[in-house]
Structure formats: structure tokens, C-alpha cells
Amino acid sequence: MPAVTMDKHKDGDFFVDYEDKVFEDVQAEEGQKALVTFHTVAFEGSIGLVNILNAIRLNRKGFETSILLYGPGVTLGIQRGFPTLGDAAFPGHQNFADNLKKFMSEGGKVYACRFALQALYGHGEPSLLDGIIPIAPQDVLDLKLIHVRDNAVIVDTWTV
Asked: What is the pLDDT of residues 63-111, one digit of tens each?
């Protein structure tokens, strides 16, 4: 068996050149929009959190950015906690809420489909985080069409 002679990695080491940015830092042109959609279940994978962070970044780049929570995506925008709402039962428990609140505090808009909220997941509008705008199921398609019409950047997230 070959011997491993390298020193053990330690905090502060890095494996990649994280400062080497290949592409230009694109900023929004006047009036550009972005839409990030979520059809994914909270805590079932990383894409919910990753794309909330992408939405925050798009907003900070100057895009008029909206998030659409529909289907199981509405589970990202409901209040949760244990033993009471707002409490973190484990580290990261409030990641969705904290980052959606940050996004909205920086001017982003979050929409949640009322059909998915009630018919699929048994929640009402009072279950949504403050600032999330409930919309009719017919508005889901129209919100997407508005962004297509306006040549927006659209990031669709769909997991099953």
C-alpha cells in the first residue's frame, strides 16, 4: 500500500482558485427583469436555497427580480419553526425564511400560488411569511408570460 505523505488539510486551506473569474460581472441594463420559479419541496434538496441566493444576487445586480412559488414551491414560503413558529429546531431550519425575508427587504417580490397553498398543502394565506404576495393559479402562467414578453432572465426550477 502506498504511504500518504501529504500534510493533513486544515481550516483556511483551499483547493481551487476562487478568485479567477472567467466571465465579466454582468449587471442589469435599465429596466431589465428576472424571474426565478420554484416547483420544489422545502428541505428535499439544495435547489430551493441555491436559487433563493441566485435571486438575491440577480436583485443586487440591478435586475427587477421576482420569485414565483408554485406547486410544492409554496412550502418554501410558509412559516415554520419548533417549538413555536420562528424558532429554529436545528441549524439551517430557517434558511428559506431568512433568505426570502432578506430578498424582499432588498426590493425583491415573492409570489405564491393560492391553489398550491390550500389545495395541495393545506395552508392558507396567514401561513405565508410576511411580504409574500398570494396569487390566483391563473396568474402563475401570466406572470411567466409577462417576463417572457419583457425579455427577462428566467430561471425555472422544477424538481420531483
From this structure: 999 999 999 999 999 999 999 999 999 999 999 999 999 999 999 999 9
Q: Where are the domains of the chain?
A: 33-158
How many CB atoms are located within 10 Å of the residue 34 CB? 23
Cα dihedral across residues 61, 139, 135, 79: positive or negative:
negative
- Cβ neighbours of residue 48 closer than 8 Å, sequence gap 6 or more: 38, 40, 41, 42, 73, 76, 96, 157
> pTM of the predicted model, to two decimals?
0.89
Give the distance, in angstroms, between the CA of residue 133 and the centroid of all CA atoms in the same chain. Answer: 15
- The CATH superfamily label for domain 33-158 reads DsrEFH-like (3.40.1260.10)
What does the pLDDT look like over 41-55, one tens digit per residue?
888 878 899 999 999
Longest dimension (CA), the chain: 64
3-state secondary structure 5-57: CCCCCCCCCCCCCCCCCCCCCCCCCCCCEEEEEEECCCCCCCHHHHHHHHHHH
